[in-house]
Amino acid sequence: MSEFPGETLYAVKANPSKWVLETLYGAGLRHFDVASENEMTLVAELCPDATMSFMHPVKSRHAIRRAYFEFGVRTFSLDCEAEFDKIMDETEHARDLTLIIRAAVSNQGAELPIDGKFGASPAQMITLLRRARPIVEELGLSFHPGSQCMDPYAWSVHCEQLSRVITDAGVDVDIIDVGGGFPVSYPGKEPPPMFRFASAIKRAFDRMPLPPHARLWCEPGRALVAEGSSVLTHVDLVRGNTLYINDGAFGTLYDAVHCKWTYPTRLIRQDGEPSSRLKAFRLFGPTCDSADMVPGPFFLPEDVREGDVIEIGMLGAYGVCMQTQFNGYGQAIEAFAADSPWASVFDNAAEPAKADWYANI
């Protein structure tokens, strides 16, 4: 996210693997969006001088207290007065807090809407801003446009909504957090170039009624790690256009099942070349649950056979962290490869010269 005109926090929930955290830390990222005590423990162990912000809007009292007194967390997200009271109580009414109030916004334009669960209305945000401003060190507003949001203009719309709240509340806001939701390239889901998102956000932020010192944050998860992993699955049975494999709905293919997303695939065969003719397949996972089915369609050589290996790519986000031990499955061997990602939104992340940009519109 080097093109983003602000500070990037990595949303650890997208992939909490040790190698992911160490790679991002090694690349210079020093701010992590954590949502649980386990994530705080991981970041504290692997990235000792990093800053953590507890961006889950609903937290247990025990987690808040541990975050503040054990892990040194000073930034907390919230979306209601009850959560505000919990944070103040469990931090013993600390004055060195940064509170980020999360707005309820439409997720139109997102492939996976997540609105309806979290977020304060404009009236609730105004109340929270006015309560918090006199007693905390810094105050912010945030939103989440929905996962895999394909429309750069969505961020502009949400920033305008926050601008109206700030004006009506009549208080200074120090931080605008535009959330995650940045899209990656999946089959049939090709987003605009990444620079369009950064440009839209920068222009919207510059128009907001903010003091000169105000800062801009984002908290991507999927966009930073989706390209970083594939899973190699074993074909255990071929039945018509259905392949029975050793991964599925209760493993790394959670999104493929529950969101009905397709992922890039290719066949790997140890002896001989597979057919060049492709056929549409669906995949059944290894558990005894009939819901363990990945509809696809996945286009693979028509002569797929037992013993073949299928590589399913772009699973770096929400793959590893969704694995379960249901029916005794979920074990995997981890290996590292040096080849390029299957597809990358960062190949054209930088904004081209204006003449080139206009020529391509």
Automatic annotation (TrEMBL):
Reaction(s) this enzyme catalyzes, per UniProt: L-ornithine + H(+) = putrescine + CO2
Protein keywords: Lyase, Pyridoxal phosphate
Pathway this chain belongs to: Amine and polyamine biosynthesis; putrescine biosynthesis via L-ornithine pathway; putrescine from L-ornithine: step 1/1
Cofactor(s) this protein requires: pyridoxal 5'-phosphate
Residue ranges of every copy of the Orn/DAP/Arg decarboxylase 2 C-terminal domain listed in the record: 233-312
InterPro entries assigned: Ala_racemase/Decarboxylase_C, De-COase2_C, De-COase2_CS, De-COase2_N, De-COase2_pyr-phos_BS, Orn/DAP/Arg_de-COase, Orn_de-COase, PLP-binding_barrel
EC numbers on record: 4.1.1.17
Every Orn/DAP/Arg decarboxylase 2 N-terminal domain range: 7-226
Top-level taxon of origin: Bacteria
PROSITE patterns, A to Z: ODR_DC_2_1 (PS00878), ODR_DC_2_2 (PS00879)
Protein family: Belongs to the Orn/Lys/Arg decarboxylase class-II family.
Protein name as catalogued: ornithine decarboxylase
